[in-house]
Specification:
Shape: rod-shaped
Number of helices: 0
Strand content: 35-45%
Helix content: under 10%
Order of helices and strands: EEEEEEEEEEEEEE
């Protein structure tokens, strides 16, 4: 059209059929000006990613919160094709009834930058289970890759119990003599 502005070149319905980014799918553009001069783009690799992030690993409970009922949980995940979309954040949801019902999804921190293919850590801080249970508290994480594929972790069980403190009353005695100590054990939240 005679434009001297930077223009976009589009190619629609190109029949790529190989997943991955290792060079299997390539495209080449050539543009001509009105005088017949041309310029080539060179071969450009096209990544096709239909695979969700995977290899969920290293689930840990990193802290238990003030009373022991609001732990911080972490897990690692990676995406080996287009890489993780860390700008979309990590996500988690939790259940207090063994997974029968779930909270809404909450956004949370994930390490790394967009496109990383290495393992990254998602951290859910102070998850509000707010109950003591060895079996009923569960958490699940979600992550997205740059291509838009979502992945969901396994459901992890998070055992919680009240933190306690032991206070000694009148702790004194005489060397060589038997002494009776009186102590009070109470939940941290009751102090």
């Amino acid at each position: 059209n005679g434009s001297t502005d930077l223009e976009w070149i589009y190619a629609s319905s190109v029949p790529f059929n190989q997943e991955g980014g290792g060079g299997q799918n390539q495209i080449y553009f050539r543009a001509y000006d009105r005088a017949g001069n041309y310029s080539d783009s060179g071969w450009q690799v096209i990544k096709i990613d239909l695979t969700a992030p995977q290899d969920w690993q290293n689930f840990t409970i990193a802290g238990v919160g003030y009373a022991g009922l609001t732990p911080t949980c972490t897990v690692q995940v990676r995406d080996v094709l287009s890489g993780l979309a860390t700008s979309v954040l990590g996500w988690y949801r939790y259940s207090t009834d063994g997974g029968s019902t779930w909270s809404s999804w909450y956004s949370t921190a994930i390490t790394g930058s967009d496109g990383t293919t290495a393992f990254q850590t998602i951290t859910a801080s102070d998850v509000p289970f707010n109950q003591q249970s060895a079996t009923q508290n569960k958490i699940q994480f979600a992550a997205r890759d740059v291509a838009g594929n979502w992945s969901y972790s396994p459901q992890y069980t998070v055992a919680t119990k009240y933190l306690t403190v032991l206070e000694l009353d009148n702790a004194s005695g005489t060397i060589g003599q038997s002494t009776t100590l009186k102590a009070t054990l109470r939940r941290v939240v009751d102090n």
